[in-house]
Amino acid sequence: MPQNTCQLRVRYGETDQMRVAYYAHYLNWFEVGRSSLLRELGMSYRDIEREAIFLPVVESHCRYLKPARYDDLLRITTRVSRPKGARLLFEYEIHRVPDQELLATGNTVHVAVDDRGKPRRLPERLSRLIR
Amino acid sequence: MPQNTCQLRVRYGETDQMRVAYYAHYLNWFEVGRSSLLRELGMSYRDIEREAIFLPVVESHCRYLKPARYDDLLRITTRVSRPKGARLLFEYEIHRVPDQELLATGNTVHVAVDDRGKPRRLPERLSRLIR
Amino acid sequence: MPQNTCQLRVRYGETDQMRVAYYAHYLNWFEVGRSSLLRELGMSYRDIEREAIFLPVVESHCRYLKPARYDDLLRITTRVSRPKGARLLFEYEIHRVPDQELLATGNTVHVAVDDRGKPRRLPERLSRLIR
Amino acid sequence: MPQNTCQLRVRYGETDQMRVAYYAHYLNWFEVGRSSLLRELGMSYRDIEREAIFLPVVESHCRYLKPARYDDLLRITTRVSRPKGARLLFEYEIHRVPDQELLATGNTVHVAVDDRGKPRRLPERLSRLIR
User: Fold this and answer.
1) Predicted model pTM
2) What pLDDT, in 10s, does the model give residues B61-85?
3) Most buried of B7, B119, C31, D98, CB within 10 angstroms?
4) How many domains does the structure of chain B reveal?
5) In CATH, what number is assigned to the domain containing residue D122?
6) CB-based contact (8 Å) between A1 and chain D?
7) Separation in Å, CA D52 to CA A73, D67, D122
């Protein structure tokens, strides 16, 4: 099961008046993790769209365990499962770097579609890279 | 089970290069729904924070059924369940207004905490309003 | 000089840990104002893009006078100047509704381009509506 | 005049349906540049807020020269001017890394305030570091 880690810092604009990162931004960070994983696998999401295949999200889930704060350095760990037809599952863990505390877990489900929104098999090359 | 509906339009900045609303923004829209529900119940979230009670999200879930597009008028329907201790469950449905198409469903789980992050019972008045 | 006003409420996710709206969101609100103005003029921005004309921003400017806070009801006043060639200037004022306090002023400059990014004259109909 | 460079990649959620980065996100990137500069100077913005000094933005300006696209690697160059009383000016340039193309320039003006919003002199240590 391919896995990638990447790092990012919590931006000021990602905090809210509770003085922690706002919950919607975790989905942005998941996307940073996905992009990083695909790039490392050897077929970036930019490449995938160049073949007129898109991977819209059909489901997202996130559990928020501990708050992330401004300027925290985070590590996003992303895994992708063997695709089932047009469906692709990504799983995520977000840790705070200095103390390795687990802050959040989540997953997203994607369906490969063509430029008219019709479900399509994943590009053969991507399926091979994931397997 | 208290219920609220409110409307919003998809902003240009909420779209992405797939020409549909980006998935993280649905969580922002859920928050608009929650705020609207609490305001209508008679105790706005602003009022709740004035009593030094906060309702951070501990879990979010969204299913994306059909894409929302720029300038679409959306209706957010929000329901809140009877609180269990410090826990509160909100459920959401997002419809496109002109044709009533259901675009997304989701829920968020919140835990009431004080200003030091300690779990707390909900303000008595809010519990009463929800029941 | 065509003018439009519209209202919106500050969302929780638009605040930051300074407990005020984060500065980048004012540009989102300006866009809400532009969209509202064009819709009222009779040619929505969605219509404009359907004619394969786009209005990317080439310059933005904002002065932040007083902070906007969560749940504040804001009024966006938007004006558009008579176009000069492909160039279009929008000007904005943001007031807090209950007390009419002026919170921010700003402007954006846009250039009409076709789908390959080449400058183009504005759609004739839009120019007429603005004049 | 202290200067810092840092890099970031354009996120998918930062694009819009024009297939380029949405204009408001440049202000988020400016903030990444400011945070990076202050951290490198030796007094992070987090440290500044710990001394109960805040640096809200009173003015922002951005010129958008060429579009930034999804997955583009960007270099943010940030400079800060010698403070005048409570006022602080940051200037920014955003380049696309592979070809060094200049995509945007801008600046932000900040005023140091205390936790009640009263203008305050900058922390002495920060003034020294900037000079």
Assistant:
1) 0.97
2) 999 999 999 999 999 999 999 888 8
3) C31
4) 1
5) 3.10.129.10
6) no
7) 22, 38, 11
Residue C99 among the catalytic residues: no
The pLDDT of residue D109 is 98
Beta bridge partners of C61: C107, D61
Q: Report the complex ipTM.
A: 0.96
- Chain D hits for B64, Cβ within 8 Å: none
pLDDT of residue B66: 97
Beta bridge partners, B12, equal none
Three-state DSSP class for C41?
Answer: helix
Type of residue found at A49: E
- Range list of β-strands (E), B1-131: 3-9, 57-64, 73-80, 87-96, 102-111
Taking contacts as CB-CB distances below 8 angstroms, the residues of chain B near A28 are 24
Report the alpha-carbon distance of residue C28 to residue A109 in Å, rounded: 29
Tokens at B80, concatenated: 């809140």
pLDDT digits (tens, 9 = 90+) for C72-114: 999 999 999 988 889 999 999 999 999 999 999 999 999 999 9
Residue A12 is part of which domain span?
3-130
Q: What's the Rg (C-alpha) of chain D? A: 15
Which of A108, A115, A87, A89 shows the shortest CA–CA distance to A28?
Answer: A108
- Mapping DSSP to helix (H, G, I), strand (E, B) and coil, where does residue D49 land? helix
Contact D78, D27 (CB under 8 A): no
On whether the CB atoms of residues B103 and B67 are closer than 8 A, the answer is yes
User: Closest partner residue to B12 among C11, C35, C71, by Cβ?
Assistant: C35
Fill in the amino acid letter for A34. R
